[in-house]
Design a protein that fits this description.
mainly alpha; 434 Repressor (Amino-terminal Domain); two-stranded antiparallel ribbon; 5% strand; single chain; 51% helix; 74 residues; 2 strands; 5 helices
């Protein structure tokens, strides 16, 4: 994981709540611990590609809806 992961824009908590799911429910669907979902939501942990895809599938969205890089000025 790169040093700049804290700059990652993370919409997981908002999309999870919009879907009416608790952290525990989402973790059950994604087959990870509730603590993992909490760590992702708080920007402590960046999920693997497989986990990001499982979460996106559960929330019926794209991975890009969950996680984005900030726009860069060139």
């Amino acid at each position: 994981m790169g040093k700049n992961h804290k700059k990652l824009i993370n919409s997981l908590e908002e999309l999870r709540k919009d879907a009416g799911l608790t952290q525990q429910q989402l973790s059950d669907f994604a087959e990870v611990s509730r603590k993992s979902i909490n760590a992702i939501e708080n920007g402590i942990y960046v999920p693997s590609t497989v986990l990001a895809l499982k979460i996106a599938n559960t929330l019926q969205c794209k991975v890009e809806d969950l996680f984005k890089l900030p726009e860069t000025k060139e």
